[in-house]
Specification:
The structure holds 2 protein chains of 2 kinds.
Chain A (H helix, E strand, L loop, with lengths): L16 H6 L4 H17 L7 E3 L2 E3 L1 H24 L7 H16 L2 E5 L2 E5 L4 H25 L4 H20 L4 E2 L7 H4 L1 E2 L2 E2 H19 L2 H10 L1 H6 L4 H26 L2 E2 L8 H11 L11 H20 L4 H19 L1 H11 L2
Antiparallel strand pairs in A: 1-2, 3-4, 5-8, 6-7
Helix pairs in contact in A: 2-13, 3-8, 3-11, 3-12, 3-13, 4-5, 4-6, 4-11, 5-6, 5-11, 12-13, 13-14
Chain B lengths: L1 H18 L23 E10 L2 E11 L3 E6 L6 H8 L7 E6 L2 E2 L5 H7 L1 E4 L11 H6 L6 H4 L5 H14 L15 H14 L4 E5 L7 H17 L2 E5 L3 H7 L2 E6 L2 E7 L5 H9 L23 E10 L3 E9 L3 E5 L6 H9 L6 E6 L2 E3 L4 H6 L2 E4 L3 H5 L6 H13 L7 H14 L16 H13 L5 E5 L7 H16 L3 E5 L3 H7 L2 E6 L2 E7 L5 H9 L4
Parallel strand pairs in B: 3-8, 3-9, 6-7, 7-8, 13-18, 13-19, 16-17, 17-18
Antiparallel strand pairs in B: 1-2, 1-4, 4-5, 9-10, 11-12, 11-14, 14-15, 19-20
Helix pairs in contact in B: 6-7, 7-8, 10-19, 14-15, 14-16
Amino acid sequence: MNSKLFIGQDDHAPAPRWQQLLRHPLLRPLAALAVLLLIDLLLIPGFFRIEFKNGHLYGSVIDIVNRAAPLMLAALGMTLVIATRGIDISVGAVVAIAGTVAAMLIGGTVVMHNGVPEYASNMPMGWALAAALGVALLCGLWNGLLVAGLGLQPIIATLILMVAGRGLAQLLTDGQIITVYYQPFFFIGGGYLLGLPFSLFIVAAMFVLLAVLMRKTALGLFIQAVGINPVAARLAGIRTAALILFVYIFCGLCAGMAGLMISSNIKSADANNAGLLLELDAILAVTLGGTSLAGGKFSLVGSVIGALIIQALTYTIYSLGVPPEVNMVVKSVVVFLVCLSQSAEFRRLFQSITQR
Amino acid sequence: MPLAVWPSLIKRLYAASLTSVDSPPFLFEFAMSNPASSVAPALELSGIHKAFTGVKALTDVGLRLFPGEVHTLMGQNGAGKSTLIKVLTGVYRPDSGSMLLHGRAIAPSSTQQAQDLGISTVYQEVNLCPNLSVAENIFIGRYPRKWRGAGPIDWQRMQRQAQQLLARLDLHIDVQQPLLVYPLAVQQMVAISRALSVSARVLILDEPTSSLDEAEVQLLFKVLRNLRDEGMAILFVTHFLEQTYAISDRITVLRNGVREGEYAASALSRLELVNKMVGAPANQEAAVSTALQGEQMPAGELFLQARGLGRKGALLPQDFDVHSGEVFGLCGLLGSGRTETARLLFGADKADSGTISIRGKLQRLNNPRDAIRAGIGFCSEDRKKEGAILELSVRDNIILALQARSGLLHVIPRKRQQQIAADYIKWLGIKTPDMETPIGSLSGGNQQKALLGRWLATAPAMLILDEPTRGIDVRAKQEIMDYVVSLCRQGLAILFISSEISEVLRCSDRMLVLRDRQSSGQYRRGELDETSVLQVIAGEAA
């Protein structure tokens, strides 16, 4: 009750329109993104230049959005989990598993057929992708059963898969990087449709799917109710356990798709490094987007913006030629500042200092 | 100002007592057998006021606690017991009033400070570390050290001291074992000896018996009697009548934040005690609708039939019926099984014996969904924890149960939601800026009305109202009860629970009186009056 879920809901007296706008929960993440882009505009020549090359759009902005796609997917899944007071730290491991399964099933070789190179996969790609997503879904189911069925604490429950999942992927690959030689697979993470990266269409599809679910079903209401007050939600007749199970399965699925994207993009499955620490970036993206880790109210758009902030930040740091050793520190300082701007406690402190 | 000197003095005394560990710290100075006459109180509170954002929790409350007595603090839910304890232990600062500990003014501002002063508290839930050893639990944070306190932990001394402290409670257990291997009663004792080891002179026990069985309670009481005879001043909080009389020397009764009186236990009959707790007969202020008074409703058709319904530790098997169009009251003190019964009927807890039939058909109510499907609604007694979803809007809160029943996929159209919310806001007179305001920013009474709206929106056949009027102002109380009664007229069955016994008496067509988790009898309207109902509750049936 004390912790406001969204900054800017402090009171409900009718305020002028511009003030209402100022209090909009998405204002802070948008402002953070704008500041980042402004820095890029000033410091990186030609940052906003977009060209049409090789039949698709080409430029820094496109690059950022393309690279942010897996993170956006993971953040969308994570948003729902966090809204139910949960957390899923196995996202990176699921990315590794899904990528590994897909790469192993597809594998692929180049066969010269009458002088024309043809690509052959070990298994039809559709089946391979379905199998990879199925495994990711099972991973989510496992997490969900531990949390909703056994009542384990989410961070512990998903910690199990975080450790075991990557281990499993390494077992499958013998710790080796599995290279994929099947051209159509590369389309998922590296292809272009209508001049735009194909990965963006996947993210957009997931986002639209979620938005429709929120509007056309009571999912959003139920998730918020469970996140704010699980006891009251159960007494009001909501199937809290089923709902929690669902969000973990969904999160697993999102991580699986992110895994396909990543392994498609690097044309291989790297069980050791694929999606490493992606869960932390996803949690960060959700937080930056204004969704409270205490659960309850959430913002899907906010999480997408959060993911863009993180990717834009990474891009900026690299482009400015900051040495890679300093990269993490710079990133953490920026994130710290953004989080600070969202802390109600800090704002109170800040106000009391400035008003003196 | 002696106030500042006092804690450090205590600390010095305590340090001195530690160096000669083998004799218990300066308890015996106060050992007296008869507190009533010439002895000064160990702890004396007077004129304590405490209010929370305008709601008075304590008004001019006094309390005297003498060395060598067990003093029981009694009162209904919301009487101010826990607030008073929190003032005593430094969790709350009183708005005004004085606290004297052995004649010196104190003003503890934290539990740590209260403990340093010699006021130790043992809480309802044992507040220890189950995976540490018994000895570690007793001395946690204050491990005895070698080399005059500068060296490593002196484990041997710690164990020896722990054994001695427990021996004082007549408890001889292996102090090296982790705490969790021992039953709850022993853990409770360990908590007590930890409280004692910090040179406590006042020991507060906040409902220590609620999770103990009969034998364990006896063990605890034996220890308390020993401590009392050593001169400890013990404040005991409970809601069990039997236990109160088994252990207390004196009783202080609180009601609505006011001290009703201080009595010698031997001079106060159970009936008088219950009377003091629930208030004198005919409590005008708590007046609710008199629409039903004196009028026997014609019994509607049988709606719900419970046979042998029970749950271990909550309710002994009960038989009762609830008819459509009647108010069925559950009457009894806190902890008598009122709420437990309601939770079983709503599927919030699973019954482990007995059956429930609804409209003559056997029903399994394994969770609230089942109950809601069967046409039951449940306004919980704990509005904040079990009712309102505080950050959601009034509209969302009102349509929540209806939406949950129609299911995830069949979303109620926005227009219809607004219609429903607007209707209940109007009919129930909910005061809110608009329906999109978070329910948490409404007053308690208006939140309660919105929650009533949530259940009415599901068009239930039976509505369980557990303390629907607790903590809300008289006007809202009246409005809620009037509305409920008018619904009952239209054929709704109502299961009504309230601590205000006169309220139950006035509203109920029939009622079940509960005492210590079992039935004391079922009565029709007019069979009990304000006096005889208290006799039934107190177990002194006429």
